[in-house]
Amino acid sequence: MVKPRIVIAGSLAQKPRQGGHTWQFLNYLLGFKQLGWDVLFVDRIEPAMCTDASDAAVKFEDSVNLEYFVHIMRAFDLAGQFSLIYNKGEQVIGVPRSEVIEYTRTAAVLINVMGFLNDTEILGAAQRRVFLDTDPGFGQMWCDLGLANLFTGHDDYVTIAENIGQLECAIPTCGLNWIPWRQPIVLGEWPVQSGGGGAFTSIGSWRGPYAPVEHRGTTYGLRVHEFRKFTALPKLTQGKFEVALDIASVETLDIELLKSNGWSLAEPSVIAADPWVYREYIQRSAAEFIATKGMYVHTHSGWFSERSICYLASGRPVLAQDTGLEKLLPTGEGLLLFSTIEEAADGVAEILGDHAAHSRAAHAIAEECFHSDKVLGNLLSKLRVA
Q1: pLDDT tens digits, residue range 172-217?
Q2: Which pLDDT score, from 0 to 100, does residue 386 have?
Q3: How far apart are CA 117 and CA 125, in angstroms?
Q4: Which fold has domain 5-185+372-382?
Q5: Which of 54, 56, 77, 52 lies closest to 65 in space, CA to CA?
Q6: Which of 13, 67, 190, 324 is the most buried (most CB within 10 A)?
Q7: Got the DSSP string for 322-342?
Q8: Which overall architecture, per CATH, does domain 187-369 show?
Q9: Rounded-to-integer distance, Cα 191 and Cα 148, Å
Q10: What does the alpha-carbon distance between residue 271 and residue 140 come to, in Å, rounded to a whole number?
């Protein structure tokens, strides 16, 4: 029987040695394969993006981008199911561009993550073009302010801001009919780990690629602006805390603030070097502590991190800053929410008081709410794709 076809487009080659970002795409690709779909992953890279291991500019064929991308595709049995398009088609690694176009014509749907694919011929060949928003708030506000429109040329719009369109959510819809949704995880790739040793850990960017956005009289900030509110947490609890934050060395005041309050700083380039090291780091943690971007928090977005889902699946409890999740996910055991530092301290005590129970509950939440079979099947249903 001929398998149904799906095209996933996104930016993996641009971010080599970023294990968490890699898993975000793997959970879609492996998840759809597990559901019985024939998958094609399409990526693009331009000359200015190509670097070596020291971030110096190099030719495409000598780049760490190409080396890492091909290694990941082969390691996860995706050989023959990818196409990396260099410099607008000057060179293609994997499935030739002409075959990508023909494949796309016969695919049920093309999912364009953050609208990264801009090849008009490939997009034009798709029967159905779906914009998948994995960084909600920024794109919608840019569009509403007339600064940029990422959404043009798509037929359907999916976002992981599950509260979008609700009165309490400040993210503008831009007149689009958004489908709220959550991210998947392939549970077989994230087995439950026994024991509860280790620290409360956190992985991410201190600032990230975007600047704060002022929208309708409110400024929506970044992770740095939220994390600073909770830096005294280690001094208020019995837990150990470690962060693997991509924070610039020039941010000496923030680095000293973290260290002086008892946070251990891990090197993010080591922790996220590849998907296997990244997974091991999460699985040897006691739990996750996550202070998230102000954009997600203060819009009451209902956003939940794909990284937190990895912790849950591994049987690692998550202590998460609330983004409007209480009505969306099971909370109180396995997943605990906080808005103040006092609530965060109480959450640490709860998890340390019965780590085994919180571990079981964490995995149960991953199974119930994020299992790739359920989540991707639900997405196809909402898109009315057979």
Answers
A1: 999 999 999 999 999 999 999 887 779 999 999 999 888 999 999 9
A2: 73
A3: 13
A4: Rossmann fold (3.40.50)
A5: 52
A6: 13
A7: -SS-TTTS--SSSEEEESSHH
A8: 3-Layer(aba) Sandwich (3.40)
A9: 41
A10: 32
